[in-house]
Amino acid sequence: MATPLAFTAGYTHSIDAVRAAYSDEQYWKARIAEVGGPNARLDSLTVDGDQVRIQLVQSIPADQLPPAITAVRPGDLVIPRVEHYTGTSGTFEAHVDGAPATVRGTVTLTPTATGCEGSVTGTIEVKIPLFGGKIEAAIAERLTELLSNEATFTEQWLATK
């Protein structure tokens, strides 16, 4: 059974500004360098009108992982991730190399009185009998922290533009 994922970020910038960042290769390179983990990289960025597709790889060092994860999957986690945006919404999918773990969901940008809000909803699924739920909970905690760091980076990056 999958664990739900929910996260909301508030931005003091417009949807157009956030979307422009998502279309900017320099934004992605800087974000990955700041919050992507060791050996993180941008594999591709494709922009076609209002459609943006990003392929990247992030990692989490083993020493930053809870024992529930390292007991089942020792070493750093390498996490390929794909995001696709059209207009004010998008989808994402990530998996852990060498482990039966996937994260999928949607991102929706909505206007607010002071800028916009980005809402992430999705699921985390680890197909390991007996331990899957515990590992999903650990991933949810770490992923929420990552999403928060990415939102903070985005807000700061936009403030410099």
Secondary structure layout plus pairing:
Elements: E1 3-11, H1 15-22, H2 25-35, E2 41-48, E3 51-60, H3 67-70, E4 77-86, E5 89-95, E6 101-112, E7 115-126, H4 132-159
Antiparallel strand pairs: 1-7, 2-3, 3-4, 4-5, 5-6, 6-7
General description of the model:
This protein is of the alpha+beta class. The protein has one domain: Alpha-D-Glucose-1,6-Bisphosphate, Chain A, domain 4. It has four helices and seven strands, in the order βααββαββββα. Strands 1-7-6-5-4-3-2 form a seven-stranded antiparallel beta sheet, covered by helices on one side. It is globular. The model has no long low-confidence stretch (mean pLDDT 93).
What's the quick description here?
With 161 residues, the protein is an alpha+beta fold. It has one domain (3-160): 2-Layer Sandwich (Alpha-D-Glucose-1,6-Bisphosphate, Chain A, domain 4), CATH 3.30.530.20.
List the domain count as a whole number: 1
Distance between the termini: 43 Å
Portion in helices: 25-40%
- Pick out the low-confidence regions: none
The beta-strand count equals 7
Keywords:
161 residues, alpha+beta, Alpha-D-Glucose-1,6-Bisphosphate, Chain A, domain 4, seven-stranded antiparallel sheet, 4 helices, 42% strand, DUF2505, DUF2505 domain-containing protein
